Amino acid sequence: MDEYEKLLANSKRDWENATDTNKLQKSMRRSISSSRWKLILATLTTGLLIVPISYLLTFIYYAFGTSSTTLMDVASNTLYVTEPNTSLEEMEFDMEFTPFSMKLGFDQYKRIGEEDYIANTYNLQFTLGSLSKKEVDTSLERVGAKHPTETNPWLTHPDNRNEIDNSREWKVLEGLPDETVAEAYISLNDVVDVEEIEKLMPNVDIVWAAIDTGVEDKNLSKDGDVVSPIGYPIQLDQTYWSPFRDVASNEEAFIDILQFIVKHEELATEVSSAKNLALSERIEFIEKNGVKTYAVVVTGPKQDLLGLKDLSVIRTLKIGEVKLWNWSH
Fold first, then answer.
1. What was the pLDDT predicted at 239?
2. Does one domain contain both 120 and 33?
3. What is the pLDDT of residues 39-58, one digit of tens each?
4. What gap in Å lies between CA 228 and CA 221, rounded to an integer?
5. Are 37 and 117 members of one domain?
6. Quick one: which of 215, 243, 248 has its CA closest to 229?
7. Alpha-carbon span 188 to 175, nearest angstrom
8. Average pLDDT of 12-22?
9. Where is the Sigma factor regulator N-terminal domain (predicted)?
10. Which domain holds residue 269?
11. What whole-number distance in Å separates Cα of residue 260 and Cα of residue 27?
């Protein structure tokens, strides 16, 4: 019986050990499963928190850092003074925030005759305070050079003595149907006051004046970089978003804009189609010599534009956009 009892005792002990092992394995499996679910839940929680925190930080940055309003102002003001005969509509700005980024979309208009037509559609993306993406879709039929050189400007300074064939553009204008209105880029034989040009061209609307800033004779800054024209709209603009709304004079507003965007010149250069704005030296020239124009953009009926051909002040003409008759003057 002793051997039998020993056998039973050993069997009982083996069974208890096996049971303890199973319990241990089950306990380990439960712990592993619990840890896995805790890790999954922690990861999901962290992931879900990152998105709202990112949005919160984005809103804080664009409210108190480089504000969204500042970015909008730099973009819009730059286009007003670097893109001839263009305007923006405030109510059509489309702003969207994503983590650490702001997207800004808007349409740019040109005045042809008496109506405004969409010229370009801009889609800008800012990552924090820097422009990270720029897309421009144009609706224009006649587009000037995206990157002007020393010899291909649409607006030419009197001291730029490059030979320019002016006959072709006048023939283009003559060939247009009588029932059309057009936009024309007119370069002058002298640098004059804007008011003087307005008196010489009473039958058309002068919509934008290119301002002499001391670099247009060669289209080069003092550092040797190619520059593009800058100027301002001549007509009154009561559009809510316009920087020329409710101002003492468009000339003063133009100077104020330059002094504003020079503080954000890198961004302004990225927004504009110009490679280089050279604002500091141009502002210095204007403050010393005053605001005078060497070229203007005008719009009006074909026949009234042709009537400008005999003006001795005009050096060259280049036709821009053309539309069907919408003139009621």
1. 74
2. no
3. 666 555 555 555 565 555 55
4. 10
5. no
6. 215
7. 23
8. 51
9. 26-116
10. 69-324
11. 70
